[in-house]
Amino acid sequence: MSERTVTRSLESDLEPERILSVLNDPARLPEWAPVFADKIEHSGQNGWRLTKNNESFNVQMNVSTVAGTVDFLREMADGKRGGAYMRVFPRVLGGSVVVMTVPLAPNSNPAEVARIVEQELAALVALGGKSR
Question: Which of 2, 68, 71, 76 sees the fewest Cβ atoms within 10 Å?
Fold first, then answer.
């Protein structure tokens, strides 16, 4: 069976709320996911307009604070929706685990996508550790 998604996780000493505060702020998306977006603007109730390499596309952000999930969904090929599916949950003795799953585009390199996801998770946690 061929890979269709990449999932990576990162443990942190930060409490989930610290990471979720960054994750739940769409304006900060270009800070921790620059491969995904250069710029972001609000375009409706849960909608956002992202720009990457001068190309714009719409993204819906679905947040469940109680579950610690944030999904960034966009229209994909063949009218399907996909994007980054994220979850932040507490570790038993403090800190948190951040998990991201992304679908693989046709002809994408799973190892390269995994490397980018790992970088994005590290940047997200680093931002959670800083005050804004």
Answer: 2
